[in-house]
Amino acid sequence: MRVAAGGFAAWTALAGCATSEPPGPAAADPTTAVYAEPPLPDGATTETAPVPAPATTDCGDPTASLRPDGITEGPTLDAIRARGRLIVGLDWGSNLFSFRDPVTGILNGFDVDIAKEIAFDLFGDRERVEYRILNSADRLAALENNLTDIVAKTMTITCDRRQRVTFSTGYYATGQRVLVVHGSGIDGIADLADRSVCVAAGTTSQQRVRTEQPAARLLTVPTWADCLVAMQQGQVDAISTDDSILAGLAAQDPYLEIVGARFSNELYGIGIHKGNDDLVRFVNRTLERIRADGTWNRIYNRWLSVLGPSPGPPPARYED
Fold first, then answer.
1. Between residues 73 and 7, which one has the greater pLDDT?
2. Which of 11, 223, 265, 287 is deepest in the core (most CB within 10 A)?
3. How open is the CA angle 79-155-196, to the nearest 5 degrees?
4. Residues 6+ apart with CB under 8 A from 215
5. How distant is the alpha carbon of residue 51 from its chain centre?
6. How many Å apart are CA 210 and CA 305, to the nearest integer?
C-alpha cells in the first residue's frame, strides 16, 4: 500500500506539473486572418501622376524600307555567314509570337518562325539561329550595340525609332485595344480614367495610353507576361497593347477578355542596325518570298488563327 500510495502521489505530482504549463497558441481564425499583398513583378514602376506623352518626330512614311533588288551578298551578310548563325533578339514571354514551350523548352511563335525563314535564306537551314532574350525597353540598344543582327519582337515601326535603327518593311499589321477581367464594367480606353493599367516599358503602347487616356494610372513592367501576373493578382484593372499580344495573354486565362475598338494602327518591322543596308535588303527579300509563296499565311494559321482568318501579309512599302 505504501508503494502504491507513493506511486499515486508521484503520478499526481507529475500531472499537476503538466497541467501548470501555459497553453499552446490558439488556432488561427480564418475569418480574421491577415494576408500580405503579393509583390509587384520585378522592375515594376507606378506613375503617381499623369505623364505627358513625348513629342514625336515626323519622317514621312516610317514604314517605307529599302528595296530587295535581289541582293544576296554584302559585308554584314558575309560576317553573319562566316559566324555560321543569325543572332536574333526576341523574348520568351509574348505568347503566340515568341514563347518557350513548357514541355520542350524550345522557343516557338510567329516571330520565331519569321526569323527562321531569314536564316533559311541565309544558310539553307532554319535552325541556324541564336536567340538573345530582350525586354521591350532593350530592343533598340541591343541593335545599336551590335548585340544582335536583327530584332524580331513585335516592334512597331515609328519615326522616333528610325532615328536610332533601321527597319524592314512591315510584316504584321495590328492595333491597340484593352484586356480586362470578364464583367469588369470596362468597355474600352475611355473607361480607363482613374484606373490602373499595365504596360510594358519602352513600348508604343505605353505612349499611346498616355495620349488617349492621360488620366489612367500606369504600372510599367519589363514584359507583357508580367502584366498578366499583375492582372491575375488583382493589382491592375486592365492591360493595354496590340490586340495580337492581348490575344496571347487571354489564351492563358479564360477569365480575361479583349474589349473596345482599336485606337491605333501598328505595323511590326524587323529591327536592324543602322547602316547595315545589305542586311535590310536581304530581310526584305525574305519577306517578299514568304508573302508570295504562302509561307506567311502558313505561319499565321499555325500561331495566330485565334485572331480569326488570315488577313494576309501587309503590302511592302519601299523608299527607293
1. 73
2. 287
3. 145
4. 50, 192, 193, 194
5. 22
6. 31
Alpha-carbon gap, residue 31 to 28, rounded angstroms = 9
* Residue 182 DSSP symbol: T
110-123 helix and 277-292 helix, angle to the nearest 10 degrees: 110
What pLDDT, in 10s, does the model give residues 91-139? 988 999 999 998 999 999 999 999 999 999 999 999 999 999 999 899 9
- The whole-angstrom separation of Cα 276 and Cα 160 is 18
Q: For residue 302, which phi and psi values (nearest 5 degrees)?
A: -70, -40
> How far apart are the C-alpha atoms of 207 and 147, rounded to whole Å?
26
Yes or no: say if 179 and 187 are a contact pair by the CB < 8 Å rule: no
Cell of 315: 503590302
**What is the chain's alpha carbon radius of gyration, rounded to the nearest angstrom?**
28
Whole-angstrom Cα distance, residue 148 to residue 141?
10
Q: Which domains does the chain have, with CATH numbers?
A: 75-174+265-307 (3.40.190.10), 176-259 (3.40.190.10)
Please tell me the distance from the alpha carbon of residue 128 to that of residue 120, in angstroms, as a whole number.
Answer: 8
